[in-house]
Protein: DUF1315 family protein
Amino acid sequence: MTDINQVIDQMPIEVYERLRSAAELGKWEDGTVLSEAQRESTLQVVMLYQARKLEQTEHFTIAPDGKINELSKAELKKQFRGESIAEFKVQDL
Structure:
């Protein structure tokens, strides 16, 4: 059997994205529902990939040391300050 570290090292980003989508939605691209065991395994692979190959600093992502990045409320406010998602005029509503 192949070592999980080798699998992660050789995994293309497209495969990671498909696995992440399946873990998030609970089903594969063709609509087949993941079993609970598949979902758990897929989530573990996704988290391992994130920790080892992606440099993430966003809130609730996996850091290279395997810990979850948790930003304080103040850090999150600072991160999103001044960014508006959408603006509407009264006559548009």
